[in-house]
C-alpha cells in the first residue's frame, strides 16, 4: 500500500489540525455552538464570523498560488485536491518519490513470503540510502506500486488482456490506442510496450500510447525513462506524454481506445456530507483556514451542484444495491444515539467520490468508444472515522505516521480513499452507458498473468497473495 509523510510534531489535532504559527491573532474565548459548525466532543472555538467574512476559494483558483491559503474557506473536495495536486506545494507535485526496486525480483528463487518481505525491506533501505546521498530528507514521501514490485509480470498481464480484446473486436480495422492516466515512473507503459513488441509485432506496429499526467515532475520522469536505454528509446515514436490534468481534458477522441487508471481512484478528491439525524437532510462540508493556518469544519444545508448531482445519480443508479452509509441504520436507533448527552448534532461523515463521477463524465463525453481498465483498493485499514473515509498518512524518519483527519498540512500527507466498486459500477454505467465487469485483483491476474513467474519456492504467489483488498473493473 502507498505511504507518505511530514514532521510528527505537525500531526496535532483540534477540530482540524494546527501547525506552525506566525504572530497569532487574538481568539475569542468561547465555546458557544454556531449553527454552521459541527459539534464535537471538545467544543472548538466558534468561527462563525470568520466563516461569513472569509472568501470562498477553489483548487483551480489556487493553482497559481505558491503559498498555502489562509483566511479562506473552501469545499472539502477543493481542500483535498489542493493538498494533493497544487503545482507549487501539492503532495504529488512536490513530495512524492516512487520506489523502484532495481532489477526485477527473481520470485522463483525466493523461498517464501517472509523472505520476500525481507528482500523488499533491504531494497527499500538501499533505495533510500542512495537518495539520502543526494539530499537527506526525514520527511521523504516514498511509496510503491504493484507495477514496480511485480514487474514485468504485472504490466504484461494488462498488455495480454488488451491485445486479446483488441484482436477479438477491433483488429484490423482500428489501431491499438492506449491512454494511461497517472503513470507514475512510466514503468507500466514500458512493460506493456515491451510485451507487445516481443509477442505480436503486427499489433505493435499499430500501437499508440498516450499518458495524461498532472504532475510536471512525474511527466519529466516518464520522459527520461523513455529515453534511458536503447530498448525503451525504440518506443519513443509511439508515446506521447501530455502534462495536464485529466479533468482539464477538452479534446474529443472518437476512436476506440483502452483507458488505464491503475491506482488513481484512491487519490481523487471527495466531498464530505453529514446528515441531520432527525430530518435526514444532507449537509455539505467546507474547510475554514484561519489566519494561523488552523483548520475548522463547517456544514451547510445548501449542497453545491456537484455534490447534489452525485447524490441524485447514486439514488437513481443504485436503487437495488445495498451500500453502507449514515442513514442505513433504523431511524429510531439514530435518534436514540443522537439524543444522548454530548452526542454530535450530525451523523458521522460520509465521503462522496464526486471527482470520480466527473472522471466518468469525461470518459463518456470525450472518449465515447473507450474501454476502461482500472484497479484500486475496495477497502483500507486504519481509515479516519466515517463512511467511505480515507486513510491519511505521512512518512517521517522512514516510518509511516497515521492521523485521524484529512485536515492536515497541505502537500505533506497522502489522502487515499477506498472505492466501493459496486456503487461505482452502477454510477459508471448510468453516466457512460457502458457495461462493466468487476472482479478481485487475484481473479484478474490469475487469468491474465504469467503466474508461474511470481511463484515462490513455497508455492506462495506474491502477485496473487498481495493486494487482497483490491479489485479490478473493466468495460466489456
From TrEMBL:
GO terms for molecular function: protein-arginine omega-N symmetric methyltransferase activity. It is found in: Mitochondrion. One of its GO terms (biological process) is methylation. InterPro entries: NDUFAF7, NDUFAF7_sf, SAM-dependent_MTases_sf. The keyword Methyltransferase applies. It is an enzyme of class 2 (transferase). Its EC number is 2.1.1.320. Keywords: Methyltransferase, Mitochondrion, Transferase. One of its GO terms (cellular component) is mitochondrion. Residues 11-22 have a biased composition (Polar residues). Residues 1-38 are annotated as: Disordered. The keyword tRNA processing does not apply. It catalyses: L-arginyl-[protein] + 2 S-adenosyl-L-methionine = N(omega),N(omega)'-dimethyl-L-arginyl-[protein] + 2 S-adenosyl-L-homocysteine + 2 H(+). Arginine methyltransferase involved in the assembly or stability of mitochondrial NADH:ubiquinone oxidoreductase complex (complex I). Belongs to the NDUFAF7 family. PANTHER family: PROTEIN ARGININE METHYLTRANSFERASE NDUFAF7 HOMOLOG, MITOCHONDRIAL, PROTEIN ARGININE METHYLTRANSFERASE NDUFAF7, MITOCHONDRIAL. This is Protein arginine methyltransferase NDUFAF7.
Amino acid at each position: 500500500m502507498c505511504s507518505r509523510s511530514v514532521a510528527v510534531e505537525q500531526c496535532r489535532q483540534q477540530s482540524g489540525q494546527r501547525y506552525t504559527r506566525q504572530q497569532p491573532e487574538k481568539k475569542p474565548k468561547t465555546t458557544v455552538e454556531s449553527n454552521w459548525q459541527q459539534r464535537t466532543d471538545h467544543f472548538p472555538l466558534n468561527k462563525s464570523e470568520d466563516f461569513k467574512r472569509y472568501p470562498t476559494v477553489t483548487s483551480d483558483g489556487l493553482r497559481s498560488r505558491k503559498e498555502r491559503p489562509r483566511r479562506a474557506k473552501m469545499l472539502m473536495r477543493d481542500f483535498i485536491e489542493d493538498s494533493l495536486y497544487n503545482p507549487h506545494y501539492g503532495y504529488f507535485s512536490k513530495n512524492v518519490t516512487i520506489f523502484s526496486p532495481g532489477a526485477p525480483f527473481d520470485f522463483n528463487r525466493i523461498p517464501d513470503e517472509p523472505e520476500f518481505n525481507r528482500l523488499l525491506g533491504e531494497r527499500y533501505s538501499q533505495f533510500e540510502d542512495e537518495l539520502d546521498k543526494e539530499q537527506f530528507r526525514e520527511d521523504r514521501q516514498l511509496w510503491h506500486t504493484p507495477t514496480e514490485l511485480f514487474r514485468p509480470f504485472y504490466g504484461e498481464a494488462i498488455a495480454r488482456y488488451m491485445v486479446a480484446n483488441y484482436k477479438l473486436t477491433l483488429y484490423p480495422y482500428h489501431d491499438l490506442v492506449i491512454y494511461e492516466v497517472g503513470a507514475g515512473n512510466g514503468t507500466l507503459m514500458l512493460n506493456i510496450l515491451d510485451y507487445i513488441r516481443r509477442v505480436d509485432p503486427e499489433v505493435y506496429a499499430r500501437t499508440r500510447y498516450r499518458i495524461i499526467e498532472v504532475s510536471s515532475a512525474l511527466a519529466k520522469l516518464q520522459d527520461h525513462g523513455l529515453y534511458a536505454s536503447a530498448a525503451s528509446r525504440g518506443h519513443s515514436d509511439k508515446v506521447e506524454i501530455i502534462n495536464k490534468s485529466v479533468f482539464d481534458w477538452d479534446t474529443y477522441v472518437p476512436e476506440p481506445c483502452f483507458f488505464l487508471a491503475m491506482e488513481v481512484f484512491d487519490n481523487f478528491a471527495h466531498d464530505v456530507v453529514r446528515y441531520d439525524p432527525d430530518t435526514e437532510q444532507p449537509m455539505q462540508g467546507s474547510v475554514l483556514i484561519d489566519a494561523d493556518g488552523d483548520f475548522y469544519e463547517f456544514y451547510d444545508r445548501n449542497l453545491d451542484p456537484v455534490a447534489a448531482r452525485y447524490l441524485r445519480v447514486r439514488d437513481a443508479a443504485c436503487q437495488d444495491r445495498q451500500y453502507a452509509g449514515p442513514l442505513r441504520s433504523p431511524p429510531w436507533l439514530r435518534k436514540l444515539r443522537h439524543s444522548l448527552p454530548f452526542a454530535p448534532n450530525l451523523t458521522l461523515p460520509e465521503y462522496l467520490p464526486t471527482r470520480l463521477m466527473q472522471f466518468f463524465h469525461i470518459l463518456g463525453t470525450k472518449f465515447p468508444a473507450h474501454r476502461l481498465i482500472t484497479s484500486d483498493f475496495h477497502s483500507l485499514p486504519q481509515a479516519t472515522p466515517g463512511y467511505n473515509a480515507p486513510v491519511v498518512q505521512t512518512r517521517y524518519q522512514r516510518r509511516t505516521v497515521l492521523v485521524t483527519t484529512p485536515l492536515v498540512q497541505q502537500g505533506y500527507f497522502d489522502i487515499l480513499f477506498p472505492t466501493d466498486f459496486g456503487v461505482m459500477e452502477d454510477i459508471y454505467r448510468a453516466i457512460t452507458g457502458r457495461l462493466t465487469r468487476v472482479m478481485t485483483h487475484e481473479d484478474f491476474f490469475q487469468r491474465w498473468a504469467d503466474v508461474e513467474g511470481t511463484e515462490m519456492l513455497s508455492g506462495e504467489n506474491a502477485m496473487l497473495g498481495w493486494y487482497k483488498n483490491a479489485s479490478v473493473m473493466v468495460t466489456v
